[in-house]
Design brief:
single chain, 286 residues, alpha+beta, D-amino Acid Aminotransferase, Chain A, domain 1, D-amino Acid Aminotransferase, Chain A, domain 2, 15 strands, globular, binds pyridoxal-5'-phosphate
């Protein structure tokens, strides 16, 4: 069944939605995006996603086509029109089209392009949560501003393909001997003492909205959190490992580069954090 999508002020059947071939998102990946989860028809951590969107836009001197209130209204309208109970909403803002190709930014009054669409998906009852994910490690050769959520996602696509060819689920990226993050998620280990370890915030990782919520909830539950880098060797010897993202929530990792983590099954703390996260998300969704 055809979805209704949003393009620059219009709700359209997906087959009729178009963007210019001169759009800078298409030509230069000159665009930022957000992905917000929907559960029971409600949006998870919408304010967090909007705050990060504003920051990404600001870092690239991109202007926003609509206010946060209008953004919320568009999200809700798409949920209603597409009858989304569980799934995702993808949002992209580009620097628009100058009607030609030129590396320099177009005039400041060029209209940004705004596109949103929905994806129906089981986000809570994801069967992968029961088995856990397997990952490989690869070099992190991305640019130096991974904290900005741009649509330059070619390397993460190559990372996913490397994982696919290795018959695993994802790849953890490593720079200077330490894991930065997963191809589209933040990466964590749990030490033998039960401490949750994840890379500190910097320009080397995306500041995950799910990461922020998970760390806040972990600390509220009295769990110990350490924000620092860890190596693949340390991860292989960890008690547990997991990832977080808006689409996967907290998802256990059970194997890294062929080595089983802990018992090779989703760890107790990872499973508990997933439950805590989902409980909180259901309570706070809008
Ligand atoms: N890191 C990267 C590279 C990502 O692409 C994503 C999500 O797309 C994340 C982390 C997780 O961020 P969030 O929890 O906001 O989805």
């Amino acid at each position: 069944m055809s979805r209704t999508v949003y393009v620059n002020g219009s709700y359209l059947p997906e087959e009729e939605a178009t963007v210019s071939i001169f759009d800078r998102g298409f030509l230069f990946a000159d665009a930022v995006y957000e992905v917000t989860s929907v559960v029971r028809g409600k949006l998870i951590d919408f304010d967090g996603h909007m705050a990060r969107l504003r920051r990404s836009l600001g870092e690239l001197a991109l202007s926003s086509p609509v206010s946060d209130e209008e953004m919320l209204a568009i999200h809700r309208e798409l949920v209603t029109r597409n009858d989304i109970d569980e799934g995702l909403i993808y949002l992209q803002v580009t620097r628009g089209s100058a009607g030609d190709r030129d590396f320099a930014f177009p005039p400041a009054d060029t209209k940004p392009t705004l596109v949103l669409f929905t994806q129906a998906k089981k986000v809570i009852e994801n069967p992968a949560a029961g088995t856990g994910l397997k990952v490989i490690s690869i070099d992190d050769i991305r640019w130096g501003r991974c904290d900005i959520k741009t649509v330059q996602l070619l390397y993460p696509c190559l990372a996913k393909m490397a994982a696919k060819h290795a018959h695993v689920d994802d790849a953890w990226m490593v720079r200077d001997g330490l894991v930065t993050e997963g191809s589209s998620n933040n990466a964590y280990i749990v030490t033998s003492e039960g401490t949750i370890v994840t890379r500190e915030k910097s320009q080397s990782i995306l500041h995950g909205i799910t990461r922020a919520a998970t760390l806040r909830l972990a600390e509220e539950k009295g769990l110990k959190v350490e924000e620092r880098g860890f190596s693949i060797e340390e991860a292989k010897n960890a008690r547990e490992a997991f990832i977080t993202s808006a689409s996967l929530f907290v998802m256990p990792v059970v194997e890294i580069d062929g080595a089983a983590i802990g018992e090779g099954r989703p760890g107790e703390l990872s499973r508990r954090l997933r439950e805590i996260y989902i409980e909180d998300a259901l309570k706070t969704a809008i």
